[in-house]
Amino acid sequence: MSGSNKKTYSVAVVGATGAVGNEMISILEERKFPVKEVRLLASDRSDGKKLEFSEKNITVKKTDSSSFNEIDIALFSAGASRSKEFAPLAVRSGAIVIDNSSAFRMDPDVPLVVPEVNPHAIARHKGIIANPNCSTIQMVVVLKPIHDAVRIKRIVVSTYQAVSGTGKEAIEELSQQTRDLFNYREVKHQVYPHQISFNCLPQIDIFEENHYTKEEMKMINETKKIIEDDTIAITATAVRVPVFYGHSESVNIETEKKLTADEARELLSDAPGVKLIDNIDALEYPLAIKAAGRDEVFVGRIREDESIEKGLNLWIVSDNIRKGAALNAIQIAEILIGV
């Protein structure tokens, strides 16, 4: 798909009433995406709801086999099962699908794209383009310039992930549990297996046979696919923390060539999509509360690993709903139409 900026496009948002779907609608408007029509789609229980776009109230409709007629671009954020069911239908109707679920990410025929990292992969699409996992996106945006410069041999990452990554129910659960604790009421949990308020849960998604969680394996496998280097050794520990918006990551890398902390700062200060905040004298470093609502991936606490000769530690923070999902998808759509 290509065209001048004067052309307009019919865009469907699947999962429009969810946290990421809401953000997609907002970003389409903010970035003045050349929209001819926005079609808002969701599950049966959201059928008939109203959402605002460009000062108009648009009725949300149930997703079905006829939902994608005359749609150019379909932004999916309704979970893997819905994507597997409806994305092929959308493609057959003539739409290009940008899917935010895990359904197609590791399919060799589906490009897995972060626009700052591997925009060239978009050209290989056969109707579906996958949006990576939120925690993967922010890490590769920072690591790709380093990999290009000195080649990364090994990555050790620990994540501190906000509850919004689970969805609106998790945001409400953290809020309710905190209110209950302060009011000496019994704390109940439904979304997570344990209390999340004032706690850290070293489990995101289900456990695999190797005792890693699905989230951890997503980071490992997706990073290799996006950076296009299967030789990078990667290990991950993903932790859910009582933060509403913004994932944080402690990342340790070992490189083939030596890169000093100062050289890394200089490299990252010009990297696309990256904002360097690294002034320890003024106690300035990336914070989840400062990343919320922002487009950039923030990096700081850059220091040389004193335990190995060619190692660096970095602290990476980004808004998981925005850059980690909705914005990344719309940036892909912008490349598709040549904006």
Commentary on this structure:
The chain is an alpha/beta fold and 339 residues long. The protein has two domains: 9-132 and 325-337, NAD(P)-binding Rossmann-like Domain (Rossmann fold, 3-Layer(aba) Sandwich), CATH 3.40.50; 136-320, Dihydrodipicolinate Reductase, domain 2 (2-Layer Sandwich), CATH 3.30.360.10. Helices cover 29% and strands 24% of the residues. It has helices spanning 19-30, 80-92, 134-150, 168-182, 214-227, 261-269, 288-291, 322-337, and strands at residues 9-14, 35-42, 50-53, 56-59, 61-62, 73-76, 96-99, 128-130, 152-161, 233-240, 247-255, 274-276, 297-304, 311-318. The strands form three sheets. A six-stranded parallel β-sheet has the order 5-2-1-6-7-8, sandwiched between helices. Strands 10-9-11-14-13-12 form a six-stranded mixed β-sheet. A hairpin with a 2-residue loop joins strand 3 (50-53) and strand 4 (56-59). Helix 1 crosses helix 8, helix 3 (134-150) runs parallel beside helix 5 (214-227) and helix 3 packs across helix 8. The protein is globular and about 60 Å long. The mean pLDDT is 96.
Annotation keywords:
8 helices, 6-stranded mixed β-sheet, globular, 6-stranded parallel β-sheet, Rossmann fold, 2 domains, Dihydrodipicolinate Reductase, domain 2, 339 residues, alpha/beta
